[in-house]
Structure formats: C-alpha cells, structure tokens
Amino acid sequence: QVQLVESGGGLVQAGDSLRLSCAASGRTFSKSRMGWFRQAPGEEREFVAAIGWSLVNTYYANSVKGRFTISRDNAKNTVYLQMNSLKPEDSAVYYCAADGRTFTRNSYYSRSNEYDYWGQGTQVTVSS
Q1: How deeply is 43 buried, as exposed, middle or buried, from its count of CB atoms within 10 A (0-12, 13-18, 19+)?
Q2: pLDDT values of the chain reduced to their tens digit, one per residue, 128 residues
Q3: Are 91 and 126 in contact (CB under 8 A)?
Q4: Are 67 and 49 a contacting pair, CB within 8 Å?
C-alpha cells in the first residue's frame, strides 16, 4: 500500500520559514515526478511546486518563486518543501503528490490529475 505522509506544518509569523517533508512508502518514487499543492479554505487546490525524476527540473508557481524550494532525497524516498519569507496568503493545507508513472516528460506538472498518490495534508498557518 502506497502512502505519502507529510510533516513539518505549523503556525508561524510572517517572514518566518518552515520546511515540509513528505515521506513515501510502499514503492519507490525515485524515477517519478513529485509535487506540492495547497488548498486554502473556500479555495480550489492549487499547484505550488514540482520536481522531476532527474532532480534537475524544478517548477514553481509564480506566487512562491524565489521563496520556496523543492528538493528530494531518493535514498529516503522523501521530498521536501523549504518555505522562506512566509506570508499570510501562504496559509493553507499543503499536500504532497506523486506521479505513479516513471520518467514523465510532459509539461503538465501543475495539473493535479497528473498525480496518482496524495498525502493527507499538513496545515500551514502564517499570522501577520
């Protein structure tokens, strides 16, 4: 059974940093694209960041570019999201997602239907 488990969320003040982790189990995702999405109350789930299987390719939403960094440790089957200079508008439940395919090369990394596995989410709240 595949599981993605996020951790690292919490309540912080504007300008602070947080590091989210997503540990995968049940299969390896070392050759698969992985991503982070978020959903605020009353809003649709939106793309935050993605990292390709090659480790070289990373993608970010414009709203987080320059502040957030996605990375992965394939030996640990874990993906991370380093979030710096947090803003109140970053408050949301953050979800980790994994593509069930391998060596995906398309440009649809921001689409939620490109991912087959999802974590339960971790809450990030940024106070002003």
Answers
A1: exposed
A2: 999 999 999 999 999 999 999 999 999 999 999 999 999 999 999 999 999 988 789 999 999 999 999 999 999 999 999 999 999 999 999 999 999 999 988 889 999 999 999 999 999 999 99
A3: yes
A4: no
